[in-house]
Structure formats: C-alpha cells, structure tokens
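New to this. Help decode the following:
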Amino acid sequence: MNELTLLQAMRDKTPVATDAAVEEGRRKLLNRIDPSAPIARPTRHRTKARRAGIISLATAAIVAALVAGDVLGPTGWRGAATAQAAQVLNEAAQTTIKTADPVVNPGQYLKISSSNLWSSLSIDESGKEFQWLDTENMTMYIPANRNDVWVWERSGRIPTVFFDEASKEHGQSLQYDKPKGDVLRGANGAFYGSAPDQSGFPSPEYLASFPRDPHMLLNNIFKRTLGQGQSIDGEALVFIADLLRTGMVPGDLRAALYKAAALIPGVTVVEDQATLNGRKGIAIGRVEEVSHTRQDIIIDPQTGQLIGERQVLTQAQGTMPAGTAITLTTIETSVSDTAP
C-alpha cells in the first residue's frame, strides 16, 4: 500500500486493502515522523471516558502521512466546523487579537484563577459504585521572572454535587473529602521538587513552538496527538481546550487556535448563552460517540477571551444524567502586585 492509496481512500471514503497492508503502510508512514522531538502537554484531570477508544490503524496512517511534513495535512479534506461555529470562532479570533494580553512588570505576578469541577467514582468493599462531582478552586501566581518562586493556592477537592443519597453519604464519609487548603511554592513552577512543568503550565518556548497559521497549527496538533484519544478530530479539540485553559496562551496563538478549531469536522455551536460562574459566552463543542461525551469551549464574543471549558455527558452514565458537566473549568487571568 502506498501513500496515494491511503489519501485516495480518505478522499473517496473507499475501503483500503487488508489489515496487513494497512499495518505495513502505517509502520512506514509513522517512521517518517521525527520521534526525537519531546512533546509537552498541559496536565489535566480527565475521566476514563475521555481516553477510551482506539483510533483505527488506517486512519492513523493517513494522518501520519499528511502531517509528517507539516504542509497541507488533513485540514479541509474531511469537512470542517459548521458555518455557525466557524463564524463564532473566526470572529473571536479577530476580537482576541485586539485585546491586549496582561503585562507583567518586574516584581509582579500573572494571576490565573480557576474554578474547577471534577467527577469522582468510588467503589466500596462490596463492589458498589458511587458517583458525585467535586469542586476545587485554584489560583496560580507566576512571577515576571519565571525562574523566581511560583505560588499555587489549592482549596482541595470538595464533594459538592450528588445524584443519589447513597453516593452523598459515601462521598462525605471519605477521609479525603475533608480538604486542607494547600499553598505550594516552587522556583520556576517546580512544586514537587522535580521538573518545572509539574504545574502543567506551558513554557514560553513551548508556546512559541506552535505555528500561527491555522492550517499548519491544526496539522501540528494532529501530529502531537497522533494515536491518542477516541478520535483524531476529537483529540485535537481536547488539546486546544487543554492549552487554552492554562490562561497563558498569548493573543496571536489564542486567535490561531480558534481558527484551527473552526477547521475541525463535527464542531458546532451547542449553546448561544452558556453561563459559567455568572459569565456568559457561546459554547462551541464536539461530540464523541464512543464515550457519549461532548467537549465544549466557552468564549466571550465581546472580548474573544476563553471563559472556560467543560466535558458534558450526552447520555446518562451510572447515576449521572445526560447533560451533566463531568469536568468544568472557568478561567480568569489578571496581574497581581503580591502573592501569598
């Protein structure tokens, strides 16, 4: 099997040879991608459902061929976001370029405040499952000189939303549900005495490594996430949401990420008036059929700023009904003269 066969198969949506041929094609094409370049990704709390599922070998091989050179790639070949979603994302990109990024002067801190919702699952000795949602508030203080000491305030996870009385009783009985607020400190973000990226916040060098052309950027993201997640397109949107939620993405890259999201098939407007912590925006999302979840990013159309992101169930799972946000993060970025 050669690359042309793979490309034509994607274009024409026709079957591609045998499993053995597909595997051989995949091996050859993956070998063309430079394996030496390290890939860093923001740290993320995610449910098992997010990472469930396996991308087919044929699809992986096709994408490997297309993105290996960071040239045209698969963008546009398989469709894109709906016209409404693309309009929202492209308008947000234009608006965000006009919005000045926070300027952190010497002695000041970039302050990133987030309110988070995480799903929890516990199984007792009898094998019975209990589900609920925890909240956690976090504030990161990043000094103008990143080599100086960072400060990270964490409230701890607090059980908040329950769907049945048994889960409420079980969740509140657990020892870890009695959080002690932490204030962590670490030079250059090394809060745990090891690599600086333990905080999950990207370095300026990492952010500078992304192309600003939306087509090139999406191909770059496809390469970085190849073989991960439930689908190539879904994992690309997850990656974009992960990066945006750090609150550290500069305006030019933020605009490019919005435009790249507009090129992802299956992305739609899912809510015209989404409210997160009292702030209103437009929710753009994409459904993963395997896990019955939807990844959303919520954008303030007036400023182009990201309000937050969430993962929503499209079908009930256990005691959690459809429509439940099983992960949710709201972000606010500002400048502070002091840190705790």
Remarks:
- Residues 30 and 64 are 6 Å apart (CA to CA).
- Residues 1-55, 69-73 have pLDDT under 50 and may be disordered.
- Residues 83-98 form the longest helix (16 residues).
